[in-house]
Design a protein that fits this description.
Radius of gyration: 22 Å
Helix content: 40-55%
CATH class of the largest domain: Alpha Beta
Number of domains: 2
Distance between the termini: 35 Å
Strand content: 15-25%
Number of helices: 15
CATH topology of the largest domain: Aspartate Aminotransferase, domain 2
Shape: globular
CATH architecture of the largest domain: 3-Layer(aba) Sandwich
Number of strands: 15
Oligomer: single chain
CATH superfamily of the largest domain: Type I PLP-dependent aspartate aminotransferase-like (Major domain)
């Protein structure tokens, strides 16, 4: 049987392993020099002034909401299609996520719906660079400035991407990255926020360390044992050996992104003749980082059958994502339900994510496409679903 091809996978080499081992043999396993090195390196890569490394992308989102002062009674607009952490981080602070619809051809947050959802309680917008494509940041910035809102980029999918020749990390007040193993670079688990705001960075550094105002280096320099907890924070620290892995991975980021783009190009070519499959559109003014390669099928019946068929053929397709407000927690706690974001619900019913990661070979890409074609033939997509009629 052919080997299983997951939708995403980390790539670790001997340089990565050696970098981690070096730290394991050092005097610092956590809160040491590698944390600051990774912060500076990622911030420099993006063109931002400050980086704050934390234990996960979710922790990074939570720290961003804390830094912006989100609290009870505040609303934050988020896209309907995203991982749940984008909305959960608002709830952690006692705020209310308000779900905006997405654009049908990209699944990026729809700026027009964002503006429709703004109220007197709105404090921020979180834009998600779905699948690795940057959002329409010029329009979102214009809306944010018009209404006095903060703009946050959930760029957990888009490290290495750009918008109008500006790197992701310079397009919002705060930009959040994830270093989970399926992302562009990994620290095992980990995340980072980059920003030009010095005070925002200081708030997030306190927040990741229990809300304590000074770290051990500052206390050592001051020759004091005394510290003060000034905020209610969390232990969201990241270890030095994780950051050593991140530094090693960062040196390979350009190659990782380039390979993802090559795979996407091959998919684009090979899927062009399959009428039942449509890829998401890519704007002319962006560089796509392709964390995910998402295609749309004609309807939910085909998508459901296709998922099972491809999984049976050891192709690890997935679905990204169920509209967040349809999850039981949000239905039960916020009274959300079907019909809130019609484009998101319609597109969710048809999307499926194909394998994409730097170690995926050209032969494996061809195998994915062939198995998809065979699955379509088996489930009779064209016969049962109005072959020849246009759809979008």
């Amino acid at each position: 049987m052919n080997k299983f091809l997951p939708y995403g996978r980390h790539v670790i080499d001997e340089d990565d392993i050696a970098s981690v081992v070096e730290v394991l043999r050092s005097d610092w396993l956590t809160t040491g020099p590698k944390v600051g090195e990774l912060e500076k390196a990622v911030a420099s890569y993006c063109g931002a002034r400050h980086g704050v490394a934390v234990s996960s992308g979710t922790a990074a989102l939570h720290a961003a909401m804390h830094a912006l002062g989100i609290g009870p009674g505040d609303e934050v607009i988020v896209p309907a299609i995203t991982f749940v952490a984008t909305a959960n981080c608002v709830v952690y602070q006692g705020g209310t996520p308000v779900f905006a619809d997405v654009e049908p051809d990209t699944l990026l947050i729809d700026p027009a719906d964002v503006e429709r959802k703004i109220t007197g309680k709105t404090k921020a917008i979180i834009a998600v660079d779905y699948a690795g494509q940057p959002c329409n940041y010029d329009t979102l910035r214009e809306i944010a400035n018009k209404h006095g809102l903060n703009l946050v980029a959930d760029a957990c999918h888009s490290l290495g991407a750009s918008y109008k020749r500006r790197k992701v990390g310079t397009l919002a007040d705060l930009t959040v990255f994830s270093f989970h193993p399926v992302k562009h670079i990994t620290t095992g688990e980990g995340g980072m926020i980059v920003t030009d705001g010095e005070e925002l960075a200081a708030r997030m550094r306190r927040f990741r360390n229990h809300g304590i105002a000074t770290d051990h280096r500052q206390r050592e320099a001051q020759r004091t044992w005394r510290y003060e907890m000034v905020d209610l924070g969390f232990n969201y620290r990241i270890s030095d050996f994780q950051c050593a892995l991140g530094m090693s991975q960062l040196r390979k980021l350009a190659g990782f992104v380039e390979r993802r783009q090559e795979i996407a190009f091959r998919y684009n070519q090979k899927l062009a003749n399959l009428d039942e499959v449509k890829r998401l559109l890519v704007s002319e003014n962006v560089t796509h980082a392709y964390h995910l390669y998402v295609v749309r099928l004609r309807n939910n019946h085909i998508r459901t059958s296709m998922f099972k068929e491809l999984r049976d053929r050891n192709i690890g397709v997935n679905v990204h994502y169920v509209p967040v407000y349809l999850h039981p927690f949000y239905r039960n706690c916020f009274g959300t339900g079907s019909g809130q974001c019609q484009v998101a619900e319609e597109q969710y019913s048809r999307i499926i994510s194909l394998p994409i990661y730097p170690a995926l070979t050209d032969e494996e890409v061809a195998r994915v496409v062939e198995e998809l074609r065979l699955s379509l033939t088996k489930i009779g997509g064209s016969e049962n679903n109005n072959e020849g009629k246009s759809w979008s």
